[in-house]
Amino acid sequence: IGVGFKKTDEVIESLYHPGPFEQVGDSVRMMGVTIAKIVSPKSDVGVQHLAGPVGIGGIMFDMLRTPNGWKRLLWFMVLFNVNLAILNMLPLPVLDGGHIVLSIGEM
Question: pLDDT tens digits, residue range 15-55?
């Protein structure tokens, strides 16, 4: 299961390129907000807004069709990989973060 974006016809013309540390911080904040909104019954964001690989591929295809689409796609892929790396480090048993925690506990 992956997280997708709602498709709209709105195109943002400017691109912002944060530094690596700023991007990781923004990604952590965005993930926290997203998870909180998915869990909250008062929020309009729910499980129906999540997308898998096919939905994410559709979003990537839509990005390529915009002006400077390859730049937007590259930015999205970097953002996606940073988010995936952060999620992978969560201390859950099936993720790498969980394996690290268990290994430290066995020392």
Answer: 667 788 888 888 889 888 888 888 888 888 877 878 888 98
Q: Which residues pair with 51 in a beta bridge?
A: 2
The domain segmentation of the chain, as residue ranges, is 2-106
Q: Would you tell me how many other CB atoms lie within 10 Å of the CB of residue 73?
A: 17
- Whole-model pTM over 0.90: no
Nearest alpha carbon to residue 63 among 80, 44, 88: 80
DSSP string, 41-100: TTSS--GGGEE-HHHHHHHHHHHHTSTTHHHHHHHHHHHHHHHHHHHHTSS-TTSHHHHH
